[in-house]
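Re: the request from the purification team.
They wanted to know what the chain is likely to look like in 3D before they choose a buffer screen. I agreed to run a prediction and write the result into the notebook, where they can find it.
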Amino acid sequence: MSPPNIVVISDVHMSNNAHYSWFKSKNKTPEALKHFLTKLSTDTTVQELVLLGDIFDLWLYPVDVSPWDFLSVVHQWPQVIDGLKACVAALPVVTYINGNHDMTVGKGQIETISSGGNHVRWMSAKQYNEDPEHAEWLHLEHGHACDMFNAKPSPKDNIANLPLGYFITRLVATADNKETCRSALKDAIEAFHSDRIAAKFATRQALCDRDDILDELGKALVVLVIDALVDYVNIERPDFSIDDTTDIVMPAGIDTVTVSDVKHTYHSLLKDWLKKEDHNFFHLLDSMLVSVRSEDGLDWYAKHLADSESSLKVIVMGHTHYAKVGKDGYFNDGRWCSAPYDAVVIDTEQRTALLKKE
């Protein structure tokens, strides 16, 4: 008989250990995570560890810093990787599901984390949730797929196959106070939605019938978001002036882009999002604010999942960095990039879950 429990963690955000990183050696988190993983590797009740996205952070770097690649981050945190390898060697399965900050980390890279003849298993959220072992009652995903700015971008309107959220994150990383910066962005988006969408369009069809308006709004939204962040950084950091000509240093192998390049791209984002059949017009603002409403950013989406798949008993996501036990079987495993540390433990026999504090 196999062990009953699936343990889920996410949002470690291992990067380069710089002052702007969320995961830093000075806050004791690496030691705590290694201890957690090492202890987990000896837990005979665990059948699977699921790493539910944003374990590695290839996004959160100021605009004048070239983001690290996967291997550089792995080499930066050997103690954490050792703890992860202990789980790989001892547990029946360790599964990796991408988030947004690690969306470019692929199967081949993940499978290099190996020990004892085993390796980390890479899966998409769709593949995992279609597994007949638990498809009927369990749903796991990072949470960025319902986030307009951080979901996989349109293949025809993007830079380096990255979503607009990548460049939002680069600007946020440039600011000293990331939380206040995110709050400023939230205010700007709410005002845009209230004044230019909700006040003028009562239904999705009314807006989708006007391609000319959608094109205009899509461009305006991108410019508004980027300008709001640029203005915030310039006010907060008078020593670091940003304008349309400012270079955003990209990862190795990708040409540098400017702030202007970003403002002239992603104009179809709003149109493409609204015209997808599974996107609800009345949750348009919710989908814009997922990553800046930490406490309840994914509640609406969890309810949508529960309503559309009535047999679901347990829904687990990360992304918002806010641990919670919500309604409709929804759990968020919080974050491992800074204290407090949380994990969701799923009992596959009882089809229940609990939020475990470390």
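For the purification team: Residues 164-291 form one domain.
Please add any questions underneath this entry.
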